[in-house]
User: Fold this.
Amino acid sequence: MLPKGGQTETIGALALQDLFAYDPLIRDRRGPAFTEKGIAMIVASRGEIAEGLFGFGKPELPAFLLSGERPTLFDDVMTFMGPLYVEGLRDLLGDEQRLSFNFLTHSHFDHCGAGPFLKRKIGRLQTGAHPLAADTFRKPGAIALIRSLGEDVSFDGLEVDLLLEDGMEIDLGGFAIQVIATPGHTRDSISFYIPELRALIAGEAVGVYDGNRTIHPEYLSSYGDYLHSLEKLAALEPEILMMAHYFTLTGPDARSYIPKSIARTRTFRARIEAYLHEENGDREAVVRRIFREDYRETGAILQEERPYLINLRAKVRAVAENR
Ligand SMILES: [Zn+2]
Assistant:
């Protein structure tokens, strides 16, 4: 998803201010993800999350760094933010050239856009993604779309060096990570689990929070796959859950989030089914109704209108077509 303000510094800062004003737990934008006493449990994805694990850049579009012997970046976000993330890597690693891997949760423009820039900057960097994502990055249509949704025109395809498949374990020196296929948001979605920290980087496979802490399911490619992926992730019972946008959850909040997300996913499907019935199968009428109720009336969705609607149509379609 593209969060509100994802494209410009000013709007991004405003959106974040609203969010931080909303909740005192995440008011300190500069602070570490954990307070010293470890009491903050839902925090902005910024600073040291656990030993060797960092969120950096902007919380609305965070990148995560696992700084073992082979430092690894998870999700490199949007094209025009590449230089900002190189700066962040320099701060955390001393020298950005130390970065070994760039692993991508999926092929959406706000999760992979700066990939080519990082490859040009860091000679030894190896990019890892699901084989379907590797295919997507070679398609002229996908390249054009990613290019058009960022401000920088330098996205020219992305060569994936490591094909990341379900069940793979990768030793990053000091840390091992597991690759878990979590399709449903997109067909190429994968999640990364760090058993030693019980930490999970799940992209949008677990849905997103709005400003009221309501979970919005994000099954764009398949409802059935999405639910199955959530059930796989729930079994991990993570202690740290790094979300695709804004938040990192820890402790009880991390443990209870995925079961809640499963319940919300089922409820949302039932609601779409009921609306489709009431609107005599008119999908666009259902989209308009949910847009009015969830987006307009709550004002809590942290995403621009256009991508929100594109995604909502995909969710209604997935239910209508029983995918
Ligand atoms: Zn996405």
The CA atoms of residues 4 and 302 lie 5 Å apart. The first helix runs from residue 9 to 22. Residues 1-40 have pLDDT under 50 and may be disordered. The domain at 10-320 is CATH 3.60.15.10 (Metallo-beta-lactamase; Chain A).
